[in-house]
Design goal:
This protein is mostly helical. Helices cover 81% and strands 0% of the residues. The protein is globular and about 70 Å long.
Length: 427
């Protein structure tokens, strides 16, 4: 136990010194194994390689490629046009369209920041041009981009499923209703804000306009359908779904919309490879650190300590929510999932919590970290896109942050919202 205290202090010391997370994890893991366990450096290297040598992790690369292709091409524009035709005529309709478009884009990309870049690039100027307050516009779209990791397919859900040994398909199915809850809450907020601010409404152009938007964007709208039907019907796995999404998006952009050039394609592949590599190096480092925790029996000791203090299941999930919200402000989603899963998963059995339900709670909690300082990646991306200081973006997302906490409590304490579709599709 003294060795664990030393290693933990060293790890958090590096975090506070702004040493990159993967380097902090690598260094502390090597020190822990070499000096406190006597493990050979060769074994450590083999262990790290085995952690990333996973068929499931290929899905991450494929969904990143699909998301980057859509972000550079016209698919994202078609999704926005469809969302606008669907709800744009309602009070706050353009803001609702932005939120809905984030959900549709997230249903292909599986990531939050690419969703913000792809949808925000169009929606930020459109909202301001239509008379919406700039702070409201920034806040609603920057926050709605979190739907990229809540509505399936979700890259963090893939990592959670791999680490907790649950079905990726079940995790994806569990994200639908929570994602819809978030969209509904943001749409209600948009409508209330629009009525108070007396924004001018766009007139309803009739069902023919909606049908036209479907026809115009059919190639883009079919993609999420292919992914979901393929996975939930058992035609292909989540990894194969990612490959299909990549090939389909590439085909549509090259031969239907004809927006991508050879240079664009090269840049997309390089960028996707770099992003995937950054994920994998974090997984390798964090997994090695969790192996050290397992060797020290830290998960078992934590389980025993928590059970001795907390008796109620609902108090436990409240405690977990608080921990995850705090962690999400300092550590990126993937690192946090890889680090914390081995600690929390044994506790789920003790408190009779479904691991699928817990996975959604974990992903949503850590996803909120995208819009909370000091890490808050989406804050910095939004600040760059809108040429505003980060503290102004932080103020803008405050109403949405409160709405996210309300949604988190609903999803946490009403498990049926999360488990209904997995129980329906997977028996």
């Amino acid at each position: 136990m003294p060795s664990f205290i030393i290693i933990t202090l060293a790890l958090f010391g590096m975090f506070f010194l702004s040493v990159p997370i993967f380097i902090s994890l690598f260094l502390t893991s090597f020190i822990a194994f070499l000096f406190f366990t006597g493990t050979s450096i060769v074994v450590i290297g083999q262990d790290m390689f085995s952690k990333v040598d996973s068929y499931t992790l290929l899905a991450v690369l494929f969904f990143i490629i699909a998301g980057n292709i859509m972000g550079k091409g016209k698919i994202s524009e078609k999704l926005i046009n469809f969302a606008n035709a669907l709800v744009g005529y309602l009070p706050g309709g353009l803001a609702m369209a932005g939120t809905t478009a984030c959900g549709l884009f997230g249903a292909i990309s599986g990531a939050a920041t690419p969703t913000l870049v792809a949808i925000g690039g169009v929606m930020f100027p459109s909202l301001v041009k239509s008379g919406y307050k700039k702070r409201f516009s920034i806040g609603i779209i920057t926050s709605s981009a979190i739907l990229g990791i809540i509505i399936p397919p979700s890259i963090p859900m893939i990592f959670y499923a791999m680490l907790s040994d649950v079905s990726v398909g079940k995790m994806f199915a569990a994200g639908f209703i929570p994602g819809i809850i978030l969209i509904i809450i943001w749409c209600i907020y948009s409508a209330i804000h629009a009525r108070r601010s007396r924004y001018q409404r766009i007139s309803f152009k009739g069902f023919r306009f909606i049908l036209f938007s479907i026809k115009d964007g059919i190639w883009a709208l079919v993609l999420p359908l292919i992914i979901f039907v393929g996975i939930f019907s058992g035609v292909f796995s989540a990894t194969e779904a990612g490959a299909v999404a990549s090939v389909y998006a590439l085909f549509v952009e090259l031969f239907i919309y004809r927006e991508l050039t050879k240079t664009d394609l090269w840049n997309i592949m390089v960028e996707s490879g770099v992003i995937t590599a950054s994920f994998l190096i974090i997984v390798a480092a964090a997994s090695t650190f969790t192996d050290y925790l397992a060797l020290e029996e830290i998960p078992l000791k934590v389980t025993a300590a928590v059970i001795s203090i907390i008796k109620s299941k609902w108090i436990f999930v409240l405690f977990v929510n608080l921990i995850l919200l705090i962690v999400g402000t300092f550590i990126d989603v993937i690192s946090a999932i890889v680090l914390l899963c081995p600690i929390f998963i044994p506790l789920l059995v003790q408190f009779k919590i479904d691991p699928i339900h817990f996975g959604i709670i974990m992903v949503l909690n850590l996803g909120i970290g995208y819009i909370t300082p000091p890490l808050g990646l989406n804050l910095f991306v939004s600040a760059a896109m809108n040429k505003e200081p980060v503290y102004e973006i932080s103020k803008a997302i405050l109403p949405s942050f409160i709405l996210l906490i309300i949604a988190l409590l609903i999803i946490t304490y009403i498990p049926k919202f999360t488990l209904f579709i997995p129980n329906l599709l997977f028996k």
